[in-house]
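Morning F.,

Quick status update on the modeling queue. The single chain you submitted on Monday has been processed. Sequence for confirmation:
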Amino acid sequence: MRHDAFLGEIDDTRIVAAIRLAEARSRGEIRVHIAEGEIKDARRAAEADFARLGMTATAERNGVLILVAPESQSFAVVGDRGIHERCPAGFWEAVAEGMAREFRAGRFTEGIVSAVSRVGDELQRHFPRRAGEEDRNELPDGVIRG
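Structure tokens below.
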């Protein structure tokens, strides 16, 4: 699928709603980046974006980035050390495989929303909300494009 066609299929409003729902259940932060252009190594690009977007600055180091590169037909899910150290082996790969299944079926928004939800479940398990503590949204929720 061409980059512009993929972008036309993505529903930012649904993705942002999923991010906000996931973050409301935990103290974690989730961002989604739809990349432009060819990316040779999605994981390496996601790791670079993670730093560039300031995602290592969260108080508990529990941010997660979902990078989708439609032109390369690749994607990656990376978490900061606070969440990565707590996830079971194979967790990030399982999230990516779920996205891949949805993408193969042409359900692009659903693939991203499903990934956000699974990441939110894991964040809730390890970084649940604390009673009486106000939500601190440390990072913007909007879909990053570019």
